[in-house]
Specification:
With 280 residues, the chain is α/β, with parallel strands linked by helices. The protein has 10 helices and 11 strands. The strands form 3 sheets. Strands 1-11-8-7-5-6 form a 6-stranded parallel β-sheet. Helix 7 links the parallel strand 5 and strand 6. Helix 1 runs parallel beside helix 10. It starts with a strand and ends with a helix. The relative contact order is 0.18.
């Protein structure tokens, strides 16, 4: 068996086109405020890509680039100003933040109806109750990729490797809301190999290059690889050994070109949803 590759780039283009069409029906274009603190090279690339995609979709990006020495108090003051700005529908704080800034405090300061990243406790709590407002963009993108794969999740066994509040936990909740039977695995999980081997759907989100070997994958399973790592050879790779897994899985996401493009596309979807909420 050779797995079908789930083309996140193509699906993301479709999502962005739908966002642009939705923007045209609004009284004013959605506004997305992007805050970048410091000069981390990877973060600069991520922000640049998000702002480029926003412009192409008709979303107005408000760029706030702050020095790494910015105090937590000053950052919170900016967030509150954006909370009160009627032209701003979504607020995105690029992570990671400098060590002297508490990320949880900053993210909790964002108004829940402007939290297009879906990280606020209010939005995560709504997801847990099965009535989401904004869902974290990466898990939302993963669900769209599972739709692309034609996976009927009801009754399927899903394993999520990783329990972060950004990916693992919301991903598990989305799968649970779709009537899958969900197991969340992490660093304290005993016999991870057997947990993965029984899964119809595997979502790997731990940030360790090629950590999941192909032989763990159940024949016919669908694999969503969230990881973006730099391997020993210098190339980008995921959390799954793609070459080996493709001999057993029915479908999987490549790295790069799988989940990554969908994260940005779904961030724009969230921003459009926020604009519709504010303009209702």
């Amino acid at each position: 068996m050779t797995a079908r590759l789930l083309d996140g780039k193509a699906l993301a283009r479709t999502v962005r086109e739908a966002v642009r069409a939705g923007v045209e029906g609004l009284a004013r274009p959605p506004g997305l405020a992007v805050i970048l603190v410091g000069d981390d090279p990877a973060s600069q690339v991520y922000v640049r890509n998000k702002e480029k995609a926003a412009a192409e979709a008709g979303v107005v990006a408000f760029d706030h680039r702050l020095p790494g020495s910015t105090s937590q108090a000053d950052l919170l003051t900016l967030v509150e100003r954006l909370n009160q700005d009627p032209t701003v529908d979504g607020i995105l704080v690029q992570l990671p933040l400098p060590r002297h800034v508490d990320a949880t405090t900053v993210l909790d300061a964002i108004r829940p109806d402007k939290d297009v990243d879906g990280f606020h406790a209010d939005n995560l709590g709504r997801l847990a109750q099965g009535r989401p407002r904004f869902v974290a963009a990466t898990p939302r993108g993963c669900m769209r990729l599972l739709e692309l794969a034609g996976v009927a999740l009801s009754g399927k066994r899903a394993v999520v490797i990783g329990r972060s509040a950004i990916v693992g936990r919301p991903m598990a909740l989305l799968l649970l809301n779709a009537d899958a039977t969900v197991t969340v695995c992490h660093s304290r999980t005993r016999d991870l190999a057997s947990e993965v081997a029984g899964a119809d759907v595997v979502v790997a989100a731990i940030g360790r290059p090629r950590f999941v070997p192909g032989e763990w994958i159940k024949p016919g399973a669908v694999v969503i690889d969230v990881g973006i790592n730099r391997g020993a050879d210098g190339r980008l790779c995921g959390d799954v050994d793609t070459a080996a897994a493709s001999e057993r899985a029915s479908a999987l996401t490549p790295v790069p070109g799988g989940v990554g493009p969908m994260t940005i596309a779904c961030l724009l979807e969230n921003t459009l949803d926020a604009a519709r909420l504010h303009q209702a």
